[in-house]
Prior knowledge:
The protein is α+β, with helices and mostly antiparallel strands. Helices cover 47% and strands 17% of the residues. It is built from 19 helices and 21 strands. The chain has helices at residues 15-25, 52-63, 84-87, 100-118, 152-156, 161-178, 190-204, 207-214, 226-234, 237-286, 292-298, 336-344, 348-382, 398-408, 413-421, 496-510, 531-534, 548-560, 574-600, and strands spanning 5-12, 41-44, 75-82, 122-128, 135-140, 143-144, 149-150, 302-304, 307-310, 313-318, 321-324, 331-334, 425-427, 432-438, 446-453, 462-464, 476-479, 489-493, 518-522, 539-542, 564-566. A 5-stranded antiparallel sheet has the order 1-3-5-4-2, sandwiched between helices. A hairpin with a 7-residue loop joins strand 14 (432-438) and strand 15. Helix 4 crosses helix 6, helix 12 (336-344) crosses helix 13 and helix 16 (496-510) runs parallel beside helix 19. It starts with a strand and ends with a helix. Belongs to the plasmid mobilization pre family. Keywords: Coiled coil.
Amino acid sequence: MVALAILRVEKLKSFGNIGGSEKHTARLQDTPNADTTKKNIRLIGMEDDSPLEVLVKNKIANTTLHKPRKDAVLCSDIFLSASPEYFRPDNPSNAGEWDNPRMLDFVKASRSWLVNNYGDKCVRAELHLDEATPHIHAYVVPINEKTKQLSHKEMFGGNGRAASIKLSKLQDSYAAALAPLGIERGVKGSKATHTKVKEYYQAVNSEPLTAIWSNKKLEPEPFESATNYVARIQNDHQFHVLNHQLADRAFMQERLESAEQRARASEKERQRLEEIVRSLELKTQQLRDLPLVDVAWELGLHNSQGKWKGHGHIINIDGPKFYDFAPDQQKGSGGAIDLVMHVNNCNLRQAVVWLHERFGEAGAERAAIAFSRQVAAEIIQLEPRDKFRLPVEDKSKWSSVSNYLTQKRGIPSNFVELLHKRGLVYADDQQNAVFVMRNLSEEPQAIGAFLRGTRGENNTFKGYEKGTVRREGWFHFRLGGQPTDPVEKVVLLKSPIDAVSFAMLEYQLRGDVPPNRTLYMAVDNPKSLPVEQLQNIPNVQVAFDSDDSGNAAARAVKELLPQSKRLKCKADDWNQQLLDYGQQLRQQQQQQRQQDDELSL
């Protein structure tokens, strides 16, 4: 039977909930189904033995910018495990036992996944080995990096379909991390959950469990006292197996009932939200910016011959706009706030307060929103756009950058010079290699630059030039076919150096340029992928790094471009594979020269 990855997320909305959860996971209270002879292990948070409540409070205080809402989820408990078939493939029903190397591989992969996905937001993780099947409880403080606020919804999803999608993607990610161990992702959708529960019950109700029930050793012996009987069976291994299996069965039954309750609650919540949406749509249709005629009336102006007069003003109102024809005014604008500021000769804050007093909070908000839209439109229309400027080229530094690319990175010198002549790579005054990022138009324009440090032995600097538009420009070049041929193959790579290295590997292995026009692109994040321009290209190869982040990015590209195919390098990255290949060639050439020398003798 195939081993499946298991991931569940529970909300902890109060510090009382957090304390109660810690009592269970840290074994601060008696746990009937736990084997006290086995010791649990803390995987994350070993250096700080403070109560979990304190860790969560400190993380919130040190990271968030605002006080948590009353209904905020303070901490998320992530349950990680795999089905028993993985831990004990020879006898899945033998609860409380496992293959130690398999268990350690599971722990290593799960811990790496937690660190890569949540970093220091994961304040603690406990490995439980004292129950039927090894599993992990990880406590994550769900902080939104952009808003610096608690947001379980942003990290794991709220209710309804959005939550299901986020949780499904989370399970995809975890299953991908465990895939090298032979652990698979369950079938997506609600039916998969029921299938796994049925499979679990089938395993629990298997012959070994029936055999334990019928084993005479678990029956009282003739004239045996109750005290002796309890002591004897508690020391019996089969009693512990039975105890663990029953505990597992109860645990899964509780999970199933909880899932069914959540499903019913989710349906009610969906219906409630749909009603709210319908109500909001109705209100939105009714809400308009405050009518200026109502504002003019509240300002004390009177309507005479189509004009609003008073306080030295003669104002014509045309929908959302007004114009003052008074001799000493001669001014026009739009919106309720501008009208109040003009007539009352006050500032913005005073105008908003005045509107609040006359039209209430809702009216003031509507006026403020309208004012913001107006200001934003004026800024967008009038503010000049700064065009991107490439870093200034320093030709005196090019030889150093070229040496870095050829000697340290193993890129053939003739190709480095070709890229340089095309203006795709050059040196700036800091001796950085400047890789020019362009759009994909017929006449590409430079709209960004990726910089790679080359000065010194261990220069790790890399980043983007200020002003780079990452969603509209990429480092790319074409090889093969004729310059006028349409692109038939695209290779997506993580960085410019990887793109060049991959192209050179293809060239060296083939011995010539690709027969068809091929586009090599550096795309460091699927968010910047030009889907519309690539969706009709039949051959798309995704050659990101072969690590967890690379695999996750490849899956994201697959969703956007279903025709894409995954390529994995044998080394850490494609540049390292190019270096390894070059070293192999040199060794072969050296061996050939030695053989030639021996033959000549």
